[in-house]
Amino acid sequence: MVYSSSLVVSAGSSSDSEGLCLSEEDDDGDEHLLGDATSPLAEFLSFKQEAVGGRHKEALHGKAMDSPLLSVMSHLLTFLERYSHMQRLQQRAQEYRSQLRVLETQRRKRIKELRATYRQKLRDKMSVIGNLEGVISEQQSLLEKIQTGGGSLYPLYPVPVLSPLSPHAQGGIHQLVESISSLQQERNTLLDELASLRQEVEQRGSEKQKLASDFQQQIQDLKQSIEEREDELIRLRTETGVTDSEKRILHLTAENESLKQSLSVTQRLLQQLSSIPSQSNTALIKENESLRTRVLQLETSLHLRAEQLSQLERENEQTEWRKREELRRLDDRIQGLQLELEKEKGKEPEIQYISKTVEVESPGTLRSLVKAEERNKQFAEQLSDQSKRCSHLEEQLRGSEEIAAGLRHKIVEYESEIGKLREDLLKEITHLEATKDEAVKEAAECSEQHLDQLREQFTGNIRVLCRVKPVTAEDQQEGSHATVVTTDLDNDSVVTMLHKGRDRTFELDKVFQPQATQEEVFQEIESLVTSCIDGYNVCIFAYGQTGSGKTYTMEGSVENPGINQRALKALFSEIEDRKGIWSYLITVSLVEIYNEVLRDLLSKDPSEKLEIKINPDGSGQLHVPGLRVIEVKSFQHIKKILALGRRNRITHGTKMNQHSSRSHALLTITVTGTDLTSEARTTGKLNLVDLAGSERVWKSGAEGDRLKEAQNINRSLLALGDVIQALRAKQTHVPFRNSRLTYLLQDSLGKGNKTVMVVQISSLESNVGETMCSLKFAQRVCKVELGPASRKIESPGSSDFFS
Ligand SMILES: Nc1ncnc2c1ncn2[C@@H]1O[C@H](COP(=O)(O)OP(=O)(O)OP(=O)(O)O)[C@@H](O)[C@H]1O
């Protein structure tokens, strides 16, 4: 018993101790405090109280104070503080880990989305490639056919043929091949990117594993550190060997053990977390919560222990002070006794008797002196022991501090590593996102480009050309000839008109200058016209107000013929080129629609009304019973036929145009080709339509029959507009039957046909309203898509012959 008797605890300090919590579970239970006899701390405190009662008695025995306990306590306090700090750091690490997990989840989600987008893009591209490959294989089979000499489409060319396909078709195939190879390259690039993404994901996984093993290592270190502390405590316990101190140390050891267990629980949880990456976020969050709660509990417990220890420290300080006081008193007493002894020694014996008395008294004093010296020696030894212990504990403390510093350093390193990893991860994610966005954008742009090209190559949009009528001598005679329409020499697809004080610009497929010749206009549509030889249906119609030049463009004059004559001339020229390989039959019919009545302009009796019916052959094609279809033998022949038609066409004078044609004129040229080798047949139809004037009724100043004419014209043009509108909206029902005109044009305006509309406009200011209407109509038509042009070709023996 070294120091128990020296514990002096005041009533106040004792009651202060009552506020201490004894275990983790006693956070709120005040009633469990001092009264809980089973608690080690309660035992300790009750021991102290007992010690208060017997302190004087103990003091008399002169028991030495025990400063090592103080050091142990202080040492423990420091350790617990550090441990608590370490716990906080661990908590922060846990938070970082959860943040990392969230980021990782987000990144995975993002990668998943990107993959899905890529897969969709790839699927789209694959389907485009599939389409293209189909077209190529079709082209290639045709090419092979031509090269092997069997089933040539162009039998008029001598064999061997160096370039059996037209340059346009070859260019198309070349473009297609290039498109496919670029698409395939793109697909490969995307696949590479996907592979690299997978690699990155794997790399992230291994990094995460590494991080987890680092955490494990950290925990292992902490565990080791705790074990060291434990050993230290055992050693201290052995050194002190005091019963109450032992109790206290045992208690602290038990606490330490519980902390250790908590740590191992945390460690196990961390292991679980790292070994089950696919665990749901909710479970992880729950576990995080429970861990956080556990850490909080441990923190509270540690805080209480710290308070308890500080209380003990205070008590120890008091005890130490009292011991010092006692020691000082003993020293004073020894000194007093020594002085007294010296004084006695210094006295001369006055008489023999007195000397004897001194001799009698001297042994007692000497004994006292010896006793005092012995005690003094004991105290000195005890002091030297204490100093040794102190220095030993100081060394231990230094060692602990070093370990703690090492741990702190490790934690800092670990935190910075986490921060760095997080930054790297964020950078990586940003970089990946940027790369993916760029790739997706590029892919989208590329797809758009290809789609545009394909659309251009394979769809039969209605092409809209605009021809501006020059100001003629007639116009100048009529008065004001101010113009409001301007064209752009550098951009042949825009036309601008001044309307109500502001410029309105329209973008069409082609705008002809007023001075454009008939030849220039025809060149623009020549390839389309001749494509009907290969089995395509083509429709060219002129639209515009009265006097804007529709008839001029379609028919022209004898000296300067228009599209009709030039088209037939071009057809005959092309047929001539294919002579000997293909044989062709060209037939024409010419009708007019006047007041919704269909008449045959080539008939001997043009007043006879004709009806439009479905062909009884079951082909579903339209059929006009009684219509005269003339086989054209030569170009000269067609000239005569057209002249007959022109004569029969009803013309009436109006305010707007002295020789206005008030009807729609439809010239239909049917070209049937037969391959002389394979006997395959193609049928193409070329419809050339000169529409009646589109001016508004009020402006034409029409009355009576003229008013009825104008109304019918407007009605049929309105029906044409409705048909175009329906085609544009891709409606399943297109109202072709709403007028004779649209009904007749059904097989030329519908899906799979090639259509050109020449919008005729006047540049005169006086016609500004009509010009505006015509251009608006043209702009609407421009957006109509008829789908890929289809060709009418039949193998020999097929009964589905296009008539
Ligand atoms: N590009 C042009 N160059 C020279 N003269 C032209 C041109 N376009 C039209 N004209 C002349 O303008 C006049 C009216 O032209 P045209 O008869 O072709 O008009 P239109 O639109 O067919 O009229 P309508 O609807 O009444 O039949 C004619 O005398 C024609 O020669």
TrEMBL record:
GO terms for cellular component: adherens junction; centrosome; cytoplasmic vesicle membrane; kinesin complex; microtubule. Residues 1-17 have a biased composition (Low complexity). Keywords: ATP-binding, Cell junction, Coiled coil, Cytoplasm, Cytoplasmic vesicle, Cytoskeleton, Membrane, Microtubule, Motor protein, Nucleotide-binding, Phosphoprotein. It is found in: Cell junction, Adherens junction; Cytoplasm, Cytoskeleton, Microtubule organizing center, Centrosome; Cytoplasmic vesicle membrane. GO terms for biological process: microtubule-based movement. Its main location: other. GO terms for molecular function: ATP binding; microtubule binding; microtubule motor activity. CDD domains: KISc_C_terminal. Residues 461-784 form the Kinesin motor domain. Signal peptide: none annotated. ATP binds at G544, Q545, T546, G547, S548, G549, K550, T551. Minus-end microtubule-dependent motor protein. Involved in apically targeted transport. Required for zonula adherens maintenance. This is Kinesin-like protein. The lineage of its organism: Eukaryota, Metazoa, Chordata, Craniata, Vertebrata.
